[in-house]
Design goal:
The chain is α+β, with helices and mostly antiparallel strands. Helices cover 35% and strands 21% of the residues. The protein is built from six helices and eleven strands. The protein is globular, with a radius of gyration of 18 Å. The two termini are 28 Å apart.
C-alpha cells in the first residue's frame, strides 16, 4: 500500500552484533596516518620507510584498524590490538577481505580518474553467525577520493570527500564541542558539487 511513498528511499536491514573496530585500508600516506608517521615513523604498527612525503603512495596498501569511539575521534590501533578485541581468526578474515575490496575498488576508480587514498569498512555478525558488511562502502563519506589528474606528492590533495567541510571547520574559532556551527550555503553547495562529480566519474552518468 505504501510502495509509492517508500520506493527508492528505504531498505531492508538485518540486526547484527557489531565488531567494535573499523577496518581501515590505506594506500596513500595522508590524514591521521600521515600524522602518526610524522610522529613515530609508523602507522598502526606498520614500520614505514623513512623520508616518505605527505600523500605518497605506499609500496602496498596496509590494514590499519581503529577503535569505534562513542565520542570524539576514533583511535588508530595495531592489528595485534584488534586481535585482542575480536580474536585472531576474525581479525585475519576482516583484514584479508578489507584489503581485497580496497584493491579491486581502487583499480576500478583509478581507471575512471579517481584515486582512493584510503577507506574504511564496518562489519558485524548476523544471527546465523555470518560476517557481513553493515554500513555503506566506497563513498565520499567513508573514503578519501582524490582527482587523479591533479595528484602531486608532498602536499594535501584536493578531494571529492568530506575533507572539504573538515578544512572549513578547522579554519573557524570552534572548540569542536556541540553545538556545531552551521555551514554557509556556498560551502554546502560546493560539497554537494564534489559528491556529484565523484558519482559521475565513477558511474558514468549524472545523478
Amino acid at each position: 500500500d505504501h510502495v509509492s511513498e517508500l520506493g527508492g528511499r528505504s531498505m531492508l536491514v538485518r540486526r547484527t552484533e557489531v565488531f567494535p573496530v573499523e577496518c581501515v585500508v590505506r594506500g596513500y600516506l595522508t590524514g591521521s596516518g600521515w600524522k602518526d608517521y610524522q610522529r613515530t615513523g609508523e602507522v598502526c604498527g606498520h614500520k614505514l620507510p623513512a623520508d616518505l612525503r605527505e600523500s605518497e603512495q605506499l609500496a602496498e596498501p596496509i590494514f590499519t584498524p581503529a577503535t569505534k569511539a562513542e565520542t570524539g575521534h576514533d583511535e588508530n590501533i595495531s592489528e595485534q590490538r584488534m586481535a585482542d578485541i575480536v580474536g585472531r581468526e576474525t581479525t585475519d578474515f576482516l583484514r584479508n577481505v578489507s584489503l581485497q575490496i580496497y584493491q579491486e575498488a581502487s583499480t576500478y576508480a583509478r581507471g575512471r580518474g579517481i584515486i582512493i587514498a584510503d577507506t574504511k569498512f564496518e562489519f558485524g555478525r548476523d544471527s546465523d553467525g555470518r560476517i557481513i558488511l553493515i554500513d555503506e562502502v566506497l563513498t565520499p563519506d567513508s573514503s578519501r577520493f582524490w582527482p587523479a589528474g591533479s595528484y602531486q606528492v608532498g602536499k594535501s590533495q584536493p578531494s571529492f570527500d568530506k575533507q572539504y567541510v573538515r578544512d572549513y571547520l578547522e579554519g573557524l574559532d570552534w572548540n569542536k564541542q556541540p553545538p556545531a556551527p552551521g555551514l554557509p550555503a556556498e560551502v554546502a553547495r560546493a560539497m554537494t558539487d564534489r559528491y556529484l562529480e565523484a558519482y559521475q566519474l565513477l558511474v558514468g552518468e549524472s545523478l
